[in-house]
Amino acid sequence: MFEKSLLDLVKGLRSHKGDEAAFINQCLAEIKKEVTNKDYEIKAQAIAKLGHLYMLGHDISFAHFHIVEVMSQPAFGHKRLGYLTAALSFTPDTDVTLLTTHLFKKAFAATQSPHPKAIDGPQ
Predict the structure, then answer these.
(1) Which of 40, 45, 68, 88 is most buried as measured by Cβ atoms within 10 A of its Cβ?
(2) How far is the C-alpha of 109 from the C-alpha of 118, rounded, in Å?
(3) CA-to-CA distance for 102 and 104, rounded, in angstroms?
(4) Is residue 81 a contact partner of residue 44, using CB atoms and an 8 Å limit?
(5) pTM recorded for the entire structure
(6) Rounded CA separation 5/49 (Å)
(7) Phi-psi region of 72 (alpha: psi -120 to 50; beta: other; left: phi over 0)
């Protein structure tokens, strides 16, 4: 399977000025396959492309759980892409908001915070 990079997506969008909708639909179909891949490099690249498509006004709600999966990876680059895409696309009504909140709490508790009460609240 050939995976387009984010740069390929942007170049493709620029080169398909008259027929952007067909190109985007093709890319979304490829991205839907990529986010189910077991390789997290491919999945993170797909999430980056989804973030770009979201900024262009396209619906990416099908990938919210996959965004949380990328956010939970130990690699900082993957986390960063997941956090960015979540910040862009998640709303208070997003189904995975509770998972995201738990993920943040777990991440903050794992670090040595000088202010643990800021995360857990008053006891």
Answers:
(1) 45
(2) 11
(3) 5
(4) yes
(5) 0.82
(6) 8
(7) alpha
